[in-house]
Specification:
The complex is a heterodimer. By secondary structure, chain A is α/β, with parallel strands linked by helices. Chain A is 50% helix and 12% strand. A six-stranded mixed sheet of chain A has the order 5-4-3-6-8-7, with helices on both faces. In chain A, a hairpin with an 8-residue loop joins strand 7 and strand 8. The radius of gyration of chain A is 20 Å and the shape is globular. By secondary structure, chain B is mainly beta. The chains are: A alpha/beta, B mainly beta.
Chain lengths: 302, 78
Amino acid sequence: MKCRKCGGAAVLELRRHNAAFCTPDFLEFFQNQVREAIRKYRMFTRDERVLVAVSGGKDSLALWDVLIDEGYHTTGLYLDLGIFDYSVESKAKCEAFAARRGVELVVSSVAAEVGAPVPVIKDVTRRPPCSGCGLSKRYLMNRVALDLGVPVVATGHNLDDEAATLLGSVLHWQTDALPRQSPALPSTHPRLVRRVKPLYRLSERETAAYAFLKKIDYIVEECPFAKGATSIAHKETLNRLEAESPGAKHNFLLGFLERGRPAFERVEDVVLNECTRCGQVTTGTVCAFCKLSDRVKRSASV
Amino acid sequence: MKVVLRNPRREVQVAGNRRVKDVLRELDILPETVLVIRGDDLVTADQVVGDDDTLELRPVMSGGAVSARATGGVNEVP
């Protein structure tokens, strides 16, 4: 198989683009896709500091790597979820990456902020672990960004993540969720920072290939709680479609963003308040994070 | 030839001297779901691998909680 650009030996075939690339041309393709994402959604400027949420996995470290190479002013944020050895190892990967690239990494601990690590939150709430984990991550990403005075948080969500979320929303016709699925969520309140996903045009195989080819040491093991998650089932379904019809995931997501999403947009009638306890944004009076934290602390004191 | 699989890590022996895509098919693995690694290199599905080769098939899927789907960044009641 030959590289589409230079004719040399290819290392990766991208069936959805009907192309294959050698290492240098694949890395350039990857950078171009990130540039296009940032440009198209005006995610951030070169004057802005960007908080990159990193988990130690391939996507977030690939994102941080490419933004550093592009000359953006970045700070990494690692959220310690307290998930046994998985968190110990993933934190070490982030610290090693930050040291190697000479960039700043901020660490925030869910156990310190919520009152217990993710495995205990799961038991206290009796909900799937991804529920309390996702809530805590979204809250802490926003709060750390506000504390640091950073206007935007970038996450490593890729094409597969976004297509799986879209499939989940469509399967349940969550018409409130559909207009909010976007590679860039603007700040709609002074205490809510912008959130962007610069890898939304790249599949997880492409981000894995980028991380491998750039010799980024990332955690290959999955989160022990990911097994059986609904989003994984959606990804597997989409991968089977992709095998039969290359480009299916790309067309599903990008077609939605360009043609489907506008049909679901309507004037937001949600009123955003500031939580009476912590000051973060909520649609109620006390935010879900504070309620979660109360519940965890109540449980611990019993 | 030896094939290294991950999550959990394990090794299997399969016949070599055939294309990567044939190895993947025998193991019932979709090409889109793995990186195929030989030493320090990635190999494409049309390449022939020898009996003495070792291939790592590294899964690329990640996740659990995917995007904040309905919240637009605002946390609702869990």
